[in-house]
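Q: Please design a sequence for this.
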């Protein structure tokens, strides 16, 4: 939540900042702002998107070769111009951008007010910079020392960058719980800072990921010094980015979400490459192999995740229990972390997260770790906090996912989880050679099958036209398709603002059936599997109450098309991996409905891609 970007070097900072903020806008888009230091330290900020901020300049852009920028997802205080970042200190000599939450800001604010500080915004971030200013004045110390002292006193999460009028060649940055990457420019002494690598990748591939409670002191033309909160010097480890610029551009699509939906044949196959080779009976995830013994011996696996990643976890529960016979529990990370759960030494906790930054998932990891669990992470973002907090794990290699609605990350997560299940089943000897070969062959054919479903795009668009004005939707599925029903409903509600609920089809008669009338579209995922006959009965129950049924069926199904209003045919595959195929039409359906309703599908209201607050 919130994106931060900063630059120091010889370029015009404004251009770097605005371009960077546009790349980070998926993290929050309530307001945007920049601060540039030329002779004076000037702050420009505006409620709304980065484009709204740009308009305020009327093509006369501020100059300066050092600056900071912010795109906000509001936590403290409503989204307006005043609460937008950057925030000044009281003497306007310092300005801060902040991603995170300072939990004890109210008591600090009170103390500062008693000393005469006045605040113009309702934010915790403005309190943060006044606090640093106050410490610097009282201790007559350097800015980095004042920042360090402040960090020992604040409670919460932060990624901050501070710019000072008194030192036009320096930026100070720090992080705890919120991500921060430093790009080391190709020109001597040039540096970029950002919440993730997307604003940096076009300038340099050399980056340093700051660790929690580290402070970076960056001096133009000199270099970067990192120390921890106890003043101990740290040696920065320079990583090479593997990300390519094209991966973060729209590539001719109207929205990132559509691009990402259409990327799935490739992202699923990238995710399998070298890890799954059916002909050689090979299923191997390097990081997981190092903990395979722990997985084999584990009495149970606990999966923690949020949102779409949690849905991937549900599918994983079904397949891991089915083919490995290891008990699996799937928990919302936000519930798990606060309910005093039983975690035994040797339990394996599997944390699934696209961004690798979700605050609740991170906290669940720390809790389980403290109780002796082995932590395996399944993340998309390389070098993310969850990836680093885990003992080991596997990356999903789906490439950057920019659309707030998760699509290709979900199918890549499933792919990793299936490979993991196969590895474990083989190691535990709970799967026959034939079953192993069959499942891995079927997995290898998934990219092709996703392509087939994508070719139905226009057909799905026509169905979307008929239902774009609905107020409610119900999604039903059974077995492996139940998590797909949840995922379909989440996709629709988050980008089109239509109320949608996902249900196990058999649960319908325990309540939701009361909602069904001729106005209610019901999406039923009814592919041919072991619960096919049961779901046919559920469809009849909906039709008996005049609900409109859109059914996702296996190609060649002769029965369901006679009973329902619309069918979308998907290619047959093993029922355990059907979610990789059956979710695709639901992604397209929600995309088209949202576009037809005039919604910004990449940046739905109130949401952010990376949820770094609890
Ligand atoms: O980055 P994560 O996978 O940890 O994020 C979890 C959820 O915030 C995320 O899946 C969210 O539900 C998406 N907007 C769903 O499309």
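A: Design:
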């Amino acid at each position: 939540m919130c994106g931060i970007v900063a630059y120091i070097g010889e370029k015009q900072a404004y251009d770097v900042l605005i371009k960077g903020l546009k790349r980070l806008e998926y993290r929050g888009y309530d307001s945007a702002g920049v601060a540039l230091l030329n002779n004076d330290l000037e702050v420009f900020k505006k409620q709304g998107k980065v484009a709204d901020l740009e308009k305020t300049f009327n093509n006369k852009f501020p100059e300066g070769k050092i600056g900071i920028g912010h795109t906000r997802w509001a936590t403290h205080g409503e989204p307006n111009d005043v609460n937008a970042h950057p925030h000044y200190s009281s003497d306007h000599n310092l300005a801060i951008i902040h991603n995170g939450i300072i939990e004890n800001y109210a008591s600090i604010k009170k103390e500062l007010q008693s000393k005469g500080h006045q605040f113009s915004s309702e934010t915790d971030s403005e309190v943060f910079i006044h606090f640093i200013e106050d410490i610097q004045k009282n201790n007559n110390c350097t800015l980095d020392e004042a920042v360090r002292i402040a960090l020992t006193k604040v409670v919460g999460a932060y990624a901050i960058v501070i710019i000072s009028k008194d030192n036009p060649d320096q930026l100070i940055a720090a992080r705890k719980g919120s991500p921060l990457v430093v790009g080391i420019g190709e020109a001597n002494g040039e540096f970029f800072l950002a919440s993730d690598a997307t604003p940096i990748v076009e300038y340099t591939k050399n980056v340093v990921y700051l660790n929690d409670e580290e402070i970076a002191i960056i001096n133009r033309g000199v270099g970067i010094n990192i120390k921890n909160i106890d003043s101990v010097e740290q040696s920065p480890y320079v990583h090479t980015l593997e990300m390519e610029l094209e991966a973060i551009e729209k590539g001719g699509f109207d929205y990132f979400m559509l691009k990402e939906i259409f990327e799935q044949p490739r992202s699923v196959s990238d995710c399998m490459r070298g890890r799954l080779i059916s002909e050689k009976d090979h299923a191997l995830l390097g990081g997981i192999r190092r903990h395979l013994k722990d997985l084999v011996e584990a009495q149970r696996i606990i999966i923690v995740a949020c949102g779409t990643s949690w849905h991937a976890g549900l599918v994983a529960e079904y397949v891991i229990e089915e083919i490995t016979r290891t008990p699996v529990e799937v928990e919302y990370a936000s519930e798990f972390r606060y309910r005093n759960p039983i975690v035994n030494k040797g339990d394996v906790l599997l944390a699934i997260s696209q961004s690798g930054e979700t605050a609740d998932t991170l906290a669940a990891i720390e809790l389980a770790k403290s109780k002796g669990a082995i932590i395996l992470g399944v993340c998309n973002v390389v070098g993310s906090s969850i990836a680093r907090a885990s003992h080991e794990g596997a990356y999903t290699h789906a490439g950057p996912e920019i659309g707030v609605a998760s699509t290709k990350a979900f199918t890549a997560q499933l792919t990793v989880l299936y490979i993991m299940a196969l590895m474990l089943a083989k190691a535990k000897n709970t799967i026959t050679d034939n079953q192993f070969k069959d499942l891995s062959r079927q997995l290898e054919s998934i990219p092709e099958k996703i392509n087939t479903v994508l070719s139905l795009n226009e057909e799905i668009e026509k169905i979307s036209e008929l239902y774009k004005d609905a107020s409610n939707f119900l999604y039903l599925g059974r077995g492996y398709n139940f998590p797909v029903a949840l995922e379909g409903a989440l996709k629709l509600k988050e980008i089109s603002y239509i109320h949608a609920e996902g249900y196990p089809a058999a649960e319908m008669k325990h309540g939701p059936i009361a909602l069904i009338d001729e106005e209610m579209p019901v999406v039923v995922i009814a592919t041919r599997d072991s619960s096919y006959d049961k779901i046919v009965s559920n469809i009849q129950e909906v039709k008996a109450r005049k609900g409109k049924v859109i059914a996702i069926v296996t190609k060649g199904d002769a029965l369901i098309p006679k009973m329902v209003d619309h069918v979308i045919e998907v290619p047959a595959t093993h029922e355990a991996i059907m979610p990789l195929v059956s979710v695709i039409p639901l992604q397209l359906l929600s995309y088209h409905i949202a576009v037809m309703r005039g919604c910004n599908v990449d940046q739905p209201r109130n949401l952010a891609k990376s949820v770094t607050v609890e």
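Q: Thanks. Anything notable?
A: Residues 453-602 form a domain with the Rossmann fold fold (CATH 3.40.50.10490). The chain has 21 helices and 27 strands.
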